[in-house]
Design goal:
Blueprint (H helix, E strand, L loop, with lengths): L10 H14 L2 H5 L2 E8 L8 E2 L1 H14 L4 E10 L2 E11 L5 E13 L2 E11 L5 H7 L1
Parallel strand pairs: 1-6
Antiparallel strand pairs: 1-2, 3-4, 4-5, 5-6
């Protein structure tokens, strides 16, 4: 993968736009944060890798439909040259009744005020069940 990018003036603005778009469930504003040839990777789940802003649209349209109350919190972020590092907390309720509660880090490469690539290290929080605690005691 070619991850060579050029820095943008304000990494924060793209990440903050993403957060606002997720919380508003505004798919157009969200997809506008990505370059058309965007490369998305999940290094601990390589089968989920994909290319293209149109795939971002498909993935997140489905997520918004499956988690209608999805909310995102950009916990912290920073940038160095062409790289941006951000920590996120995504939560909501799936239409099937299960909870979405994901936290993690997303590393991004930026080009012309858009995400050229990203590596997601987001994971669902382990659900602790009272019965499991009792088994351990």
């Amino acid at each position: 993968m070619n991850t060579k990018t050029t820095p943008i003036q304000n990494t924060s603005s793209v990440l903050l736009k993403m957060e606002a778009a997720i919380n508003a469930h505004n798919i157009d504003a969200f997809v506008n944060c990505f370059a058309p040839d965007f490369i998305g990777e999940q290094p601990v789940h390589p089968e989920r890798n994909f290319t293209g802003a149109e795939q971002v649209r498909k993935n997140w349209t489905a997520l918004f439909a499956q988690v209608p109350d999805l909310q995102a919190k950009l916990t912290t972020h920073t940038s160095a040259d062409e790289l941006g590092w951000s920590e996120w907390h995504w939560q909501g309720n799936h239409t099937n009744g299960t909870k979405l509660d994901m936290r993690g880090v997303v590393v991004v490469g930026l080009r012309e005020n858009a995400l050229a690539w990203a590596r997601l290290y987001m994971e669902q929080l382990a659900q602790v069940v009272q019965a499991d605690i009792l088994k351990a005691v």
